[in-house]
Amino acid sequence: MNAQDLRKQALDAGTRISAAAARNRAFEGAASGATRRNGRAQAESKPFPTAAVLGGLALGLFMAALDATIVSTAMPKIAAGLGSFDHYTWPFTSYLLTCTLATLLCGACATRFGHKRVFTCGISVFAVASAGCALSNGVDALTAWRAVQGAGGGLVEAGVFIAMAELFEPRVRGKYMGILSSMYGLASIAGPLAGGLIADTVGWHWIFLVNLPLSIVALVLAVRFLPGKQTHAERSFDLPGAVCAAAAIVPLTLAFSLTGNAFAWFSVPFFGLLALAGVMIAALVLVERRRDHAIVPVRLFRRAQVNGAVAMGFCSQFALMVGVMFEPRFVQEGLGLTSTASALATIPMTLALVVSSTLAGRVFGANGRMRAISRVGFLVLGIGALLLCLVGPATGMVQLACSSAVLGFGIGANMPMTNIAAQTAVEPRDVGKVTSLALFFRGLGGTVGSAACGAVAGASFANAAMPVFALCVGAGIAGLALSRTLPRLIECRR
Predict the structure, then answer these.
(1) Which CATH superfamily is domain 302-494 in?
(2) Of 87, 291, 327, 436, which has the most beta carbons under 10 Å away?
């Protein structure tokens, strides 16, 4: 073998050794990368105390729902204490406006910053605004602080359900969502009663100050135990979409929340607000179609299950608010009972709602039959509405209570289903945004339902049960038809 062959063999051997070393370094790099990824995955999926997490989320949701109703019975005392009955409804409307807007924007915020930051930020804003409400020295100041409080409440409400989607698979989530959804029923019972009692005893300021210790407890539980899982972060925030969404939500909400008080149905202001909302919704669609990280991704509405879920949430909340608005007025005007009795009128409906939402969540967790549960819920809702159509001055409190309990049972059965249906219809990166959409349409259904109840009943609620609850029958029929968009079965998976 000559020297040239020896040099060639040496070069070949060196090349093979270098290639092998490169492969080893690549394998080591891949292994270390996999180890780091697995370590992060294990850190994100490590066990957490479910009871403590659910306790913090439930407490935050209860506070946000409570403050939407607690002011109702205390507002006469508040107005008297502040020395002004002008703009009596503004503290309600400002809370509703900002809560609705924050709910819609929360999905994008949670996608970018994570559900833990959004929830804790919402609790903090809510607590600070509660202190501001308590220290207000005029209706204008109270209205401003209620707007801030509504923004915090909207972040809390949406943050709760986005966190549930991140932490639990659908079947397990259903069991816990039933419990969380029952917070709305408990708050609707406790809010008016607590508002009147606190205002009459220790003063209206404590209606808001009582939120401070509750907020601290919820915040501590969230900071200490709530996992900060964030799997689909976005680097940019859709500011043009947020501006268009706000410009659409404000006139749309005002059109239905002020109708019957500030202006009449089918009046120029009513149609003007609706027209403005329509123009801004069209602008929102045009803007969002061109955005990579849209607040309201237009592509979500191409999925029949998403459309069905948000529409079912609208119908369910519509029926709930019709019942909540109608029954207290009917007890006073139709049955001639006291204001105390009217405050207790909605308890059978809300207790049935609490029971059925919890039960529906457990049944879904056991068998995963989403479509069947939803159909049963809307069928019972329609039956309850039909029974309430027969209520009149000659019937009595017992028939009203039993009929409204049937209505509440049907409404409650669908409360955990609509959110889960929307969440399971999309990719994981869109879960936060579709959750916000579902909550937004549910809130819109409540706003439209309360306005429609007042418009149909007119000046007297004594003989208005038939036309008012005919609307709820229609909502039940629509919900039954929409339930076909839901999957028959949700498999248990991790």
Answers:
(1) MFS general substrate transporter like domains (1.20.1250.20)
(2) 436
